[in-house]
Design goal:
By secondary structure, this protein is mostly beta strands. The chain has a domain at 129-199: Thrombin, subunit H. It has 2 helices and 30 strands. Strands 1-29-28-27-26 form a 5-stranded mixed beta sheet, with helices on one face. A hairpin with a 5-residue loop joins strand 8 and strand 9 (107-111). The longest helix is centred in the first third of the chain and has 16 residues, at 2-17. The protein is globular, with a radius of gyration of 19 Å. The model is unreliable at 1-20 (pLDDT under 50).
Length: 350
């Protein structure tokens, strides 16, 4: 009870000391420089939603997908990707991906008959890959007509993906329905759609980035049940060899949501707060840039153009969540309310 009271007081004090943004339902407020926020919603309730924040007007627009298309977004909005003039929203438990216009948010198409999609990554105008939590294969889709054109068998589940030259690096995050340990980054040749390599790292790789020196960084939580120490890995993208392994000090921690700044030389991640480190650091930082302060930090986003940090707070996972907007020095700029369980960010200027 005491912790709950402290939590409520902390939130109240923070809101009273920082600017809180206005909320409206004006679709016309979309412009370059804003940020889309996917609100996951509750599992099996189908109450996910799409919000938009315009930093120029300090206005938040809510339930945008429903407003424009007059249909609910679906059950657990997992991720969002902007590709040219279209936005793709992955709806995990509904097994679909919606495509909408980047400016008007009008429905353009739908990829369906997916098992449990997590992310979509575009290989070219005619081909994209979709990772899957429950399936052991990657789905290949033609984004021009939204048809499934093939599968790539991995033998494991798949989650976040990054592309470098002709190779796609795919994290084996979940151990659901598999007998093998979820501790690999699988490599697929995007020209022939063949699995070519598998890099063994730590348990539960949850996020990846590529730095300015063309090195791959992978953050591993160590497992949902704290199976091993959390780790951060630096990998050579050409040879797939491990360059360096960083081991966190506390097995009870679950660091996640690795991001990189616009210049590609600083890493950011969540670990009971926001931590930042240089790609040249030889050890993990001792201090956090932004302390969680009894909030429930959920996901992290970096605006490379504005050099700002966005962190979502899921609160109790039932009420509308909050987004905190910071400068790169950790100073709070503002906060604003969005939907239930605010998740991934997509910046409209990147």
């Amino acid at each position: 009870m005491f912790k709950k009271i402290i939590f409520i007081l902390s939130i109240s004090l923070l809101f009273s000391c920082s600017k809180k943004e206005d909320v409206n339902n004006d679709i016309d407020d979309i412009s370059n420089g804003g940020v889309f926020i996917v609100n996951e919603g509750n599992f099996s309730v189908a109450n996910s939603s799409l919000s938009y924040y315009n930093p120029e007007t300090s206005i938040v627009t809510s339930n945008m997908f429903y407003q424009v298309n007059n249909v609910p977004l679906g059950d657990v909005a997992q991720s969002i990707t902007i590709n040219n003039e279209l936005i793709y929203i992955v709806i995990n438990n509904s097994g679909i991906i919606y495509s909408i216009d980047r400016k008007t948010l009008e429905f353009k198409g739908k990829i369906s008959e997916l098992t449990s999609p997590r992310e979509i990554i575009f290989i070219n105008d005619q081909k994209a890959y979709i990772s899957d939590l429950y399936s052991s294969s990657i789905t290949i889709v033609n984004p021009t007509d939204y048809n499934i054109i093939g599968k790539i068998e991995l033998g494991k589940s798949s989650d976040c993906m990054v592309k470098y030259d002709d190779e796609v690096f795919i994290a084996n995050w979940s151990s659901y329905a598999q007998t093998k340990v979820n501790n690999t980054i699988m490599v697929v040749n995007s020209e022939n759609d063949m699995l070519t390599d598998s890099i063994v790292i730590g348990v539960e790789p949850n996020s990846m980035v590529i730095d300015v020196e063309d090195q791959l960084w992978v953050l591993c939580s160590g497992g949902f049940m704290n199976d091993e120490m959390p780790t951060l890995w630096k990998i050579n993208l050409y040879t797939h060899e491990i360059i360096k392994q960083f081991i966190f000090a506390d097995i009870q921690k679950n660091p996640d949501n690795l991001c990189i700044n616009g210049t590609g030389d600083s890493l950011y991640f969540l670990n009971d707060g926001v931590t930042v480190m240089s790609i040249h650091d030889q050890q993990l930082p001792d201090n956090m840039l932004i302390d969680e302060n009894n909030r429930n930090f959920y996901l992290l986003g970096l605006s490379s153009v504005d050099n700002e940090i966005f962190v979502s707070d899921a609160l109790d996972y039932n009420q509308n969540g909050v987004i905190y907007r910071y400068k790169t020095n950790g100073k709070l700029i503002s906060s604003f309310e969005v939907g239930i369980i605010p998740g991934c960010f997509a910046f409209n200027n990147q």
